[in-house]
């Protein structure tokens, strides 16, 4: 049987179904998918195929009308997969034990959460407030954050999937805004015969940086990667066949590289922490006019001092004649692809919760979910958040062991 390249979307889900259809869930989960209300958030956590896997394992899925519309999934597709369509966001929250979202709940959505519900969503460390965390604690919510889910291999699977998309798209965005119609220098990223390519400077050495470097090399750009972790730089050099130039992110190297950069991609971060701010305003002011900055970690506070969050509907601003693109949810612009990516990671976790007999029991055995939990039984369970907001915390292992 030949391979049909036009069926690529379904391949991952077909594999997932074959692997997971035999799940023996001990309880029936009630999973709610409200329509995202945050600015320009078009993704959703489950595809219709993902819903069909869950309903085949006796779980119930309640999805708000048109929740998948922006990712090009229709209500009929979800209904055919076995989901119950809800006609209001209140209905989703009232009927569900697990609320599954991409963006963190808004203030209004926080009010809808009830005692002992489970929230699974992104946290967005750059925007998280003490009030948000305290509300979850006071309401006795079990909160699991995408940014904290770490498996036994020390990988962050949800973060990785979104960072792969973000890195690739960051280069496309940089190339677009270099065009003169958008205020850029009017140069091509890859150059042509007799004309040298543009210079792409990538700050950071993790997954976003790797995929940005791959894409920039594909365009034909000259690529520099700066990071203070030599092991990461060695990995990137080997993975990319030494086609990039690397250096430590010292003040000297960074200042010199920025003077020559046409596109700066900010991707410096530490998982579960706020991003370190490495580029000063003075450095930005010394960049070439019409250059482009894409700060991919703005949702974690940003790694460039002149960055401030923007939206897909108003994505850029100029500071010191430098174009800044600082949209927190870059993958939302490819919402269908991003939804498939989220779905393929999240569905196995939901099945694991059902197999264990509920969220409380699953935290005993599932390392990734336990690592991902940041609020549990009226306590903050992440030391990093405790430092940021000066809220006392308790190790989740202690809470589980004490059977609180």
UniProtKB/TrEMBL annotation:
Domain Alanine dehydrogenase/pyridine nucleotide transhydrogenase NAD(H)-binding: 178-326
Name this protein carries in UniProt: alanine dehydrogenase
Pfam families: AlaDh_PNT_C, AlaDh_PNT_N
Family indicated by similarity: Belongs to the AlaDH/PNT family.
Source domain of life: Bacteria
Any one GO CC term of the record: plasma membrane
The EC number(s) this enzyme carries: 1.4.1.1
Enzyme class: oxidoreductase
SMART domains given in the database record: AlaDh_PNT_C, AlaDh_PNT_N
PANTHER family per UniProt: ALANINE DEHYDROGENASE
A molecular-function term among this protein's GO annotations: alanine dehydrogenase activity
Biological process annotations from GO: L-alanine catabolic process
Residue stretches in coiled coil: none
